[in-house]
Amino acid sequence: MVYKTISYKPGDLVLFLLAKQLIECLPDKLGVIMKMPFLALIVTLLILPLTVSAMTVEQLASQLGRNDLIIYDSRSKADYDAGHIPGAISFPFEQAYYSKDKALYIKGRTQITSLLREKGLEREKRVILYDDGDLISAARLYWILTLYGHDDVTVFESGYNSWIKAQPSERQESKVASSHFAPNFDASVYASTTLVKLATYSKNYTILDARSLDEYRGNKSMSSTYGRIPSSLHFPVSALISEKSGQPVLKSNRELTPVISQLERNKKYITYCNLGKNSTLSFYVLKRAGFDVALYDGSWIDWSMKKLPVEQEKGQ
What pTM was estimated for this model as a whole? Predict the structure, then answer.
């Protein structure tokens, strides 16, 4: 977990001082005790991250069949064939990646253009993504579409497991006509190895390690190298997930607030894990909360395979 002093933008400080003056204008007879709730409310509003209300099952059901909407199922093709939300298109996120030296990397512009057109992606259409409900796959596809320039993407956070409890599913594969989508690469959400190396020395960046505590400390590793990227902070994906009816789900906004409020708003964040999969959930949560965040494509496997410097805390 990250423990850091919270930092605000200049505008936040001005707002706080104005609020403080307003509180001081309250009648003295209210006393300090009566004024405290007003001050606490202002502080809470400053600390709370910007969040959005999650789409409900009923809201999604009411939009099925719209011509301006496309729904992508980010689960495996086998899971999709076993049952999916009516009208959804199968789009396992793995189709957008290639493997090299045990690491996974997003496909280049030529390959991704062909894939996104095959999936019928259009800039004029809203996109809704889903997986079973843990959002690991959906968040990965969210990053892919954001990276390549589609700016109207919503994650159905309740997931398929919640859908089938209240709504019908189908097994017939949905077809979509090919499109002429032209990707625009959004460099602001992409962290290359070079950028991450720079970030280890820069006060303007904070690197977040989404792996387990043992991996962060250097006691375990998926590669032959143990440790973490220098200066990175532990921000485990496990802190973002809870269990509901035995299924992993994203925590509620209220539960996420104490986790996210530890982060400074004036930094650029870079998330990573082992293969860049779990850390896309960190990316999604921070992006949704209004942070400036990028994902390290390749992540720890890429870093360690290139024999770059590491930090360790073995034995703790």
Answer: 0.82
